[in-house]
Amino acid sequence: MVIVSWVIGMYSLKSLLYQDLNLSKLDRLEKAKRRWAKVLGNVPKNSQILEAYKSLVKEKKATVNPALEKLLKIRKIRTLSGVAPLAIMMKPFACPGKCVYCPQESGMPKSYLSNEPAAARAKKLNFNPKKQLLARIKQLKAIGHQPEKLQIIVIGGTFSAYPDKYKKEFLKAIFDAANGKVAQNISQAQKWNEKAPHRIVGLSIETRPDWITDREIKLWREYGVTKVQLGVQALDDKILKLIDRGHNVKTVARASEKLRNCGFKICYHLMPNLPGSSPNKDIQIGQKLFNDSRFRPDTLKIYPCVVIPKTTLYEWWQNGQYQPYSDETLIDILVNIKRVVPSYCRIDRLIRDIPNNWIAAGSLKSNLRQMVKTTMASQGLICRCIRCREVKDQASLHGGVRLKILSYSAGLGKEVFLSFEDKNYLYALLRLRLPSQNQNQNQKPLFPVLKQAALIRELQVFGPQLPLSTPEVNYSSNLGKFYSQHQNLGKKLIKQAEVLAKKAGYQKIAVISGVGVRDYYRQLGYNLKNTYMVKKLC
Description:
By secondary structure, this protein is α/β, with parallel strands linked by helices.
């Protein structure tokens, strides 16, 4: 009976929506909702209106209406970077680290707590990767998103320390879930994902710098990994030794070099407020990240240290050996780090979602990022990181968008950051790696296909994610006024990267492509070789 009533309600809502669309009476959505409520008996939810709208579009009784979609979508930020980022957590497993600040809750991967948002979802689903992915896709669809371009973020301790068999099965299950069918092996699952309804365009894992080996890198490419998050914590050997991190600064530099020359996108995790540090030292470490060419990460997650019970750090705090910064001091540090972050780097996070009930000492401010932004604004400062400049839903391609090229050295090679920008926003980017050709000739590359090759490490077009089926659009069209995707920005950046690579003397160009984007590169003359999409520059 409930189902029948719901169907009748949906039909009535669909009819009302159809009528108002034809009469152009949807200039004010809230007013329309009140009008419909008189017929339906209740005010319809945005998700119900969105479902009715999609049905009308599918039946060709309505045209695509970006303005209406924008009004109906809930939590728009989820897909405003052009992809749908989804965190999937691995099961609890022994961690090789002994860090003094790191919690170990029973039944959870080390460093994660059961009431953190992603961790809570994973635990509820018994850490099943397929169930986690399908639940997140269902949730996003319900609030108006079309998660077809998936950026998978695998979390849960040190990925490299898990057994190879489990890692492969875990990632295969993610591909199977995205594909909607079960493959015989991970290779077949990846092949299917090239044309699947939900395509994995990026795959990130978390590990430690001291676990970056040739063998591990080869496995990652077999698995389809495109991004590596490194637990760097601090660029200071004394601090690293005091917190019992288990690696030094040289290890970070060596790991970064290996990853760059295999095309991976690199994210550093940084922890201000650690034992043995100071406000000035934390600011100096933030500067060293970008002043020292051995480092210069593509993205950055800043996790200020907090004191959690049942850790060594908790004991140090109790006996007076450690005292965390005040919020004012921490904000000042973060302001001084953000102000030096270059335009080629994205600050993914400025605080970790640790629930306050776990924090014995340290900042309890969940809106720390907003507080830092407000403080910077009061001082006349702006952050030039990628996240702060992404166009989001402010697309205006007719207004002076230009190609910009920024070059910088990094890890015995040259990085070229190509972007389409206007004076306010970043629309698209491409990271081109030009490895040292002398080094390339003297050393056997880890992947033979990368010999004498320039590397595209990342390509991303920002703005609301458009469905895969959306054709190319012109900026002056109805769609183009609202979206920056599917307007050839990516293709133009690739063409420019090919020109630069050829001019620099490289024989070919290789892309560390997400599995779900391989067909896109095939259309541009690239072919799959040794897990990379490769094109000769003749």
